[in-house]
Amino acid sequence: ALPKATLAASLVSFNVGVEIGQLAFMSVAFVLLTLLRRWKWDVGFRYASSLVAIAVGMFWFVQRAFLS
Questions:
Q1: Model's pTM, two decimal places?
Q2: Which of 64, 33, 66 is nearest to 50 (CA)?
Q3: How many angstroms separate the CA atoms of 4 and 68, rounded?
């Protein structure tokens, strides 16, 4: 429903905003993960958080691929 005259500018500004949000998130994650490396339980935490990420990703995949 956007006017054709502003379609390109709207798409570019939306994509730039998404990329800025991703950079902000990754910057915070990088700092937190760098600080996390100082603790001895780092490996166990990374393993557990990877399993959680896999489980959430599989749940979303099954939900969107087979249940909608």
A1: 0.57
A2: 33
A3: 33
